[in-house]
């Protein structure tokens, strides 16, 4: 009797395992859920050398690694904060959930209407990841993604971040480009020439040669009997470490038309083993209000922004005044 019960128990266990196997097999066939479906997350970010992003109806955006920098469309330096965010998503995104079968038609339609094709390559041109980024979930806590050539979408998210993934890749050309006006932290500034076009008496140049600093201010009349402070000149030449723009305005006809007016200031930064950086400044208020004119050097601190023309690299930026406070000096500053 006991032996019969044991045999029946084994039979029921085997039947249970059989039904579970068949159910899993059926579910797998219905949803086409395979391990390779979800293999679009890159394991090692150091392998990533090229990222292409193609939104529906928009041109292809191309990002490529060049040393410690990334280049946008083989021409412009890319915004590193945006690239770092992309790299984080490509290597750290995780499955939030697998969408139910009844939601798939809507998800597929989202891929067609707002899909963003993303391809990732290594240095040798091998494909590391190729997938399409669709719409966000209803709760905006994940984004539908599907590997190219496969049919199973997944709701993907970042483990420690709230929200979908589209914002990381849905960037305009202006947003993808670097907005660094200058970054001379690791370079040696040899001299700076600052010309205030409407306030010539406060124009000057500061240079260093062989450890000695020289102030040249031919129209400056004060403190002629004193020597400028070398520490102040040294500090000034170190104030050109990094300034970023608020926006890029290169190529806009309305901005280019400013060149017909006298700028507030012209600046030339001479750097060792590099071309001189030539910058031209037009205060924002001078542009918006025809009756407003920034004349004196000290008036610049009343401004909020500037149109800055980089004549060396052919770019035009909008830069906040607060970031330029340390470079708009007058000769008085060097006698402290």
Q: Can you give a write-up of this model?
A:
The protein is an alpha+beta fold. It folds into two domains: 35-173; 180-335, no CATH class. Helices cover 24% and strands 29% of the residues. A nine-stranded antiparallel β-sheet has the order 4-3-2-1-6-7-8-9-5, with helices on both faces. Strand 12 (204-209) and strand 13 form a beta hairpin. 26% of the residues are buried.
Kindly name the structural category.
Answer: alpha+beta
Strands of the widest sheet, in order across it, are 4-3-2-1-6-7-8-9-5
Could you state the order of secondary-structure elements as H and E?
HEEEEHEHEEEEHHEEEEHEEHEEHEE
Mean pLDDT, to the nearest integer, reads: 88
Q: Please tally the β strands and state the result.
A: 19
Overall shape: it is: elongated
Number of DSSP helical runs: 8
State the domain count.
2
- Helix amount, in percent? 10-25%
Beta-strand content estimate: 25-35%
Q: What can be said about the biggest beta sheet? A: 9 strands, antiparallel
> Uncertain regions: pLDDT < 50 for 5+ in a row?
17-32
Radius of gyration: 30 Å
Cα end-to-end separation: 107 Å
Keywords:
nine-stranded antiparallel beta sheet; 2 domains; elongated; eight-stranded antiparallel beta sheet; 8 helices; single chain
